[in-house]
Design goal:
single chain; alpha/beta; four-stranded parallel beta sheet; four-stranded antiparallel beta sheet; 8 helices
Length: 196
Amino acid sequence: NYITSVNVFVTQAVKLNVFVLTYSLGKMGVPVCCADTRSYTHTRLSRFCRDYSTYPGPLIDPEGYLKAINTLITRHEIGLLFPSYDEVIYLSRHRERLINPRVLIAPPFETIMQVHRKTSLYELCHLLGCNAPVTLELKDPSDIDRALSRLAFPLVLKPERGGGGWGITFIENADEFIVQWQAFDTEKHKNRLFAQ
């Protein structure tokens, strides 16, 4: 009953999971306000989206983004804020800059980053006794030697950020490993490379 007595605000309305969340909460009678950087999304068309707003992207205009989020929290008397995807990380990091930090549904920033960064996630998995592949960050040529001594072929090269298989390469031998490592442009992709 508590949740139906508060207004809920969901971000990144373009995402399918946000559409489903809006539908599910709305079906229970929860008032849901939705927002995104785009003016038109499928979530905006949902009968369960009580109000729709746009905001600047946090990577393009961080100050404008926070100002817009705070304006929406105030305007709609938001009791719970459900951010999606990278906005969870951004809002968690800047929780104290929210007009009402208690509305944010997100763990502390440090906790998010522990599972968001591949190396710390796999370290945590090993610490907890979960099966997880050995994961090594590749920063310079000495990391190649370390990876070759600790990993067996076939191995996987993958960027820290990505999804849907982007940037993942299966490597069959040391020569191919070196060629692929040298070809990955960390500056261009603003990403780090890992071997497993």
